[in-house]
Write the structure tokens for this entry.
Amino acid sequence: MFRLFLADDHAIIRQGIKRALTDMTVVGEASTAEELLKGLPKLLCDVLLLDLALPGESGVRLIPKIKALCPQVRIIVFSMFSEPEYARHALEAGAAGYVLKTASMQDLHDAIRQVLAGHSYLSRPFDEQEISEPRPAVKRLSPREEQIMQLIGSGKPMRDIAETLALSPKTVATHRARILEKLQLKSSSDLLRYAVYHGLKGSVTK
């Protein structure tokens, strides 16, 4: 029987997966990145089902750390982010599969079987060619823009960001517009999703 580790901050999701995947053994669970990084290396595990929006250290940059601790574990990202670039970034970071949280349990079951067989897996409706063709390269963010993205990822509104960095709201708005252009995003919600997915959150210094 295959051994599964569940990392998701929603207990109801973990419970639902355990009830549905009766032919697999759940050997461990984590609701935060800290619990995951401490608990996973202590267990014999075949597959890690990973939500990248965990409290604490999160984002796609968490995947290489997990692979360094447990290189034998196959990682399936279980995500609400449906844009192709998010799946691409996860696979490039070392994940073996990417499954949307809107997928069926059969889809999730298929993903686990596929990665255990040594294959990669993309949830429907992703297209492999679409995933393999990267978007045009984005321009690198300046140090100030990176600070603003970290504060966005922490959930701070623009007014609080301006106060934290001792900037005028107009200056922060200008930086925000430049970030949107560089990252090829369209809205504040896109910025928040991008920041959370890439682990860009935390306190900053002025």
Summary: The mean pLDDT is 87. The CA atoms of residues 146 and 162 lie 14 Å apart. The two ends are 52 Å apart (CA to CA). The longest strand covers residues 24-30.
